[in-house]
Amino acid sequence: MLRGIYPGSFDPVTFGHLDIIRRSAKMVDELIVGVLNNKAKIPLFSVNERVKMLSEVTKEIPNLQIVPFEGLLVEFAREREADIIIRGLRAITDFEYELQMAQTNHKLADEIETIFLNTSLEYSYLSSTTVKEVASFGGDISQFVPTLVMDMMKEKRNTKGECK
């Protein structure tokens, strides 16, 4: 059985993330979406909120698990007995960073391969940071994220007064 991990912060999940998730799920027997709890960053959504969002917007994908994690990705991959790590690439700048991370991960765990998927052209500009910025100014984010995510971001804006 081929098991892959697609890690990220998903704060929030975008149509670009969902594109990579759907395409990756077709390539493996089991796909684990690892939701990173990065203590160095202050996310808009808690890990539990991000897991809930992802679980809801990917519920039609049968071979998918959504799992929170913290720490080293390769350790998480070993715990989950993953064979591959899947990373999405939007631009050259992504490639430089991702290549360095893939090489580091290979030194730490040479039994786990990293594969790169180019983001579909229609989402090549899209990032969670961009979505949060547009939302913080009250812009329409409906073309960037699913309705559930848009509603949760509006709720954050109403309760916190901002979407940053």
UniProtKB/TrEMBL annotation:
MF term (GO), any: pantetheine-phosphate adenylyltransferase activity
Q: Which residues bind substrate?
A: S9, K41, L73, R87
Catalysed reactions listed for this entry: (R)-4'-phosphopantetheine + ATP + H(+) = 3'-dephospho-CoA + diphosphate
Q: Where is this site: Transition state stabilizer?
A: H17
Q: Which InterPro entries match?
A: Cyt_trans-like (IPR004821), PPAT (IPR001980), Rossmann-like_a/b/a_fold (IPR014729)
Question: Which SUPFAM superfamilies does the annotation name?
Answer: Nucleotidylyl transferase
**Any idea where the Cytidyltransferase-like domain is?**
5-133
* EC numbers for this chain: 2.7.7.3
Q: Which domain of life is it from?
A: Bacteria
Q: Which protein family is named in the record?
A: Belongs to the bacterial CoaD family.
Q: How does it assemble?
A: Homohexamer.
- Known role: Reversibly transfers an adenylyl group from ATP to 4'-phosphopantetheine, yielding dephospho-CoA (dPCoA) and pyrophosphate.
HAMAP family from the xrefs? PPAT_bact
In its UniProt entry, what is this protein called?
A: Phosphopantetheine adenylyltransferase
What gene codes for this chain? coaD
